[in-house]
Amino acid sequence: MGKRKRESANLKKEARRNESFAKLRNIPSSPRKMRLVADMVRGVEVFKALGLLHFSNKQAATDVEKLLKSAISNWEQKNGKKAESGELYIKTIMVDAAPMLKRLRPAPQGRGYRIRKRSNHVTIYVDTINKEKDA
After folding, report:
1. CATH number of the domain at 20-129, please?
2. In the structure, how many helices (H) and strands (E) does the chain have?
3. What DSSP line would sit under 73-84, residue for residue?
């Protein structure tokens, strides 16, 4: 690896030092339903987001809540300290489509209607709030 490439790799590594992520794959609900929940907590402080998800009526909120707890735990493991209120926020949350299960339902006159059972992948990035940059 050349010097320039190594320096840029070290800069990227330093920028991602306070950032942690978690992925949940092949969730059996449609990406559209999951995006409604993701939009609800995007950019919010993590403990406030946990409260929003816990008291939400949507079924997808339980999956996102579990994933957010995992991302917080990953951040704590990576940095060696406990997360405090107001310190972490959800930097990025992405919902991607996963492979679809295709089924046929019997229809009149010998035809078949196609049923698409959708699933999705969710990725959450958690980062620290830098007070020095805001000042």
Report:
1. 3.90.470.10
2. 5, 5
3. HHHHHHHTSPPP
